[in-house]
């Protein structure tokens, strides 16, 4: 977002707030602007905050606090929403995400919104976090209100709303998947996301949350957790003295090898993916075969109709000759 966008935002705010509220706003900004400053408009107040380094494209805290007051007085929630949306776009959603890295046992919940008429409603991250005091507060409430135990929200991103959730254990991930399949997760997301504020911001009174978790991503996350446990077990085994055993027919000591399932699990993972691709290929071939069979049947039926018509025409001619 450029400085022009920031100035446009300030201009919108200055035009929306009535000048009669200026004295109250100056009182709110006490200590943030010069005592003897000549402020006679909302625009001048905002510029004075800039001069004192209390307002800028990347410094919006004071402005948001002031707009909370305006929001409480006049109900003009769109102003605070515009500021938060600008902040999110300015930071490229950096303030809404944690560093995920290469997460083990993580799945992504794709959340979309539809109106009562079935129309897709776009909800940005800034809109979803509109009333949140901070990202951490939002994540904490999300974890306690939506997710089953042992799962934590790690990232939030756009393209509808994407919530990346990491499971601490395999059982926790399985519980999350079970609640996704039986609709429990959707009901919690509906209750958590569809607030009165969201309805006002989108202009839709009846919103329905649609959630999707990719089946293959879930399977990969399960295998990643199994591999992680196997690797941890292997490390623990390597720290202990290797077990020594004596063969009945041999006086020499032999070392029992430490076995791990990691290679097997990775092979199993590859086989699952290969099996999935094979299923897709077989399904595609079956569809093509069915279409070809339908086309052949249509041709045969057409030939039969044509033959019957030709035979009837011949019969009519013979009857005419008689």
TrEMBL record:
Domain DED, chain residue ranges per copy: 5-74
Biological processes per GO annotation: regulation of apoptotic process
PROSITE patterns per UniProt: DED (PS50168)
Keywords: Coiled coil
Pfam families on file: DED (PF01335), TRADD-like_N (PF20694)
Coiled-coil annotated residue ranges, if any: 267-301
Repeat as UniProt keyword: no
Entry annotated with the keyword Coiled coil: yes
Name of this chain's protein: DED domain-containing protein
């Amino acid at each position: 977002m450029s400085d022009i966008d920031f100035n446009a935002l300030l201009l919108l705010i200055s035009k929306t707030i009535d000048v009669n509220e200026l004295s109250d706003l100056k009182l709110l900004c006490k200590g943030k602007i010069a005592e003897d400053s000549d402020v006679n408009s909302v625009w001048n107040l905002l510029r004075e905050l800039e001069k004192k380094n209390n307002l800028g494209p990347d410094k919006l805290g004071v402005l948001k606090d002031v707009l909370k007051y305006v929001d409480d007085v006049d109900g003009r929630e769109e102003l605070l929403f515009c500021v938060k949306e600008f902040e999110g776009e300015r930071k490229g959603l950096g303030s809404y995400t944690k560093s995920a890295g290469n997460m083990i046992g993580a799945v992504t919940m794709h959340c979309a919104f539809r109106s009562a008429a079935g129309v897709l409603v776009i909800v940005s991250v800034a809109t979803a976090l509109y009333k949140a005091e901070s990202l951490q507060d939002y994540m904490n409430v999300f974890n306690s209100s939506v997710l089953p135990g042992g799962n934590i929200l790690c990232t939030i991103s756009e393209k509808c709303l994407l919530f990346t959730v990491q499971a601490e254990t395999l059982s926790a991930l399985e519980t999350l998947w079970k609640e996704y399949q039986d609709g429990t997760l959707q009901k919690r997301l509906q209750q958590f996301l569809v607030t009165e504020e969201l309805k006002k911001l989108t202009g839709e009174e009846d919103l329905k949350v649609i959630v999707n978790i990719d089946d293959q991503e879930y399977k990969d996350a399960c295998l990643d957790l199994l591999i992680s446990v196997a690797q941890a077990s292997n490390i623990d085994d390597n720290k202990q003295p290797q077990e020594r055993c004596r063969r009945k027919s041999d006086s020499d000591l032999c070392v029992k090898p430490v076995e791990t399932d990691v290679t097997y699990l990775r092979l199993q993972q590859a086989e699952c993916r290969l099996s999935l691709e094979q299923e897709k290929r077989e399904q595609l071939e079956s569809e093509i075969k069915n279409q070809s069979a339908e086309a052949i049947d249509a041709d045969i039926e057409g030939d039969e109709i044509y033959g019957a018509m030709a035979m009837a025409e011949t019969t009519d001619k013979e009857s005419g000759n008689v």
